[in-house]
Amino acid sequence: MEYAKKNYQENDLDLISADAEQFEWSERFDIVTSFETIEHLYDPEKFLERIHNLLIPDGVFLLCVPLGETRHMDRYHLHAFSQEEMFALLKKTGFSVDWHHCDECFLTRSELLRWGKLYPESSPSINELLFSRRGWRIIYDFVFRGGFDIPQVLIYARRIN
Question: What φ, ψ does residue 160 adopt, rounded to 5°?
């Protein structure tokens, strides 16, 4: 937040840090964005209902979600979504998917090592690497695949009811 306030603060821009599942605001938004958030939340459906209630009718929701199993790479990912599951969840919570685009994203060994230096708390311990399913998956991807494949979907959804 400090970085954002220092580098992106505008006179008419409010920067807010809040619990994504509990966030309240007195006014409604035209647009809400959420990039790589929903996979970290305990209750993704509750989060989407929250966003739905915060948007004006026909309000726009832009979100980016990693697809497939990523929990071995990021211990803080609580969910693995397919594109179809994400679309169904959006529909269930009152959104219409008007546009989407899938991107293939591959993090190379050097990018992963840089990531580990930036976020040391996300790096697995030696015990976890050697004695857990997650650890063996990390070793396999790192050694034999040269990194991690993390496809993502960018979604433009609209509040429909």
Answer: -110, -15
Q: Can you state the percent helix, strand and coil of the chain, rounding each to 5?
A: 40, 25, 35
Q: What residue spans of 93-146 are helical by DSSP H?
A: 109-118, 126-131, 133-140
**In sequence order, what are the residues at sequence separation of 6 or more whose Cβ sits closer than 8 angstroms to the Cβ of residue 132?**
124
% of the chain with per-residue pLDDT over 70: 99
Q: Which residues pair with 103 in a beta bridge?
A: 152
Which residue from 116, 118, 136, 119 is spatially nearest to 127, judged by alpha carbons?
Answer: 136
pLDDT per position as a tens digit, 57-110 = 999 999 999 998 887 777 888 999 999 999 999 999 999 999 999 988 787 888
Half-sphere exposure of 27 toward its Cβ, with a 13 Å CA cutoff? 5
Q: In whole angstroms, what is the distance from residue 150 CA to residue 103 CA?
A: 9
The number of beta carbons lying within 10 Å of the beta carbon of residue 132 is: 14
Look over the chain and give the mean of its residue pLDDT values, rounded to a whole number: 88
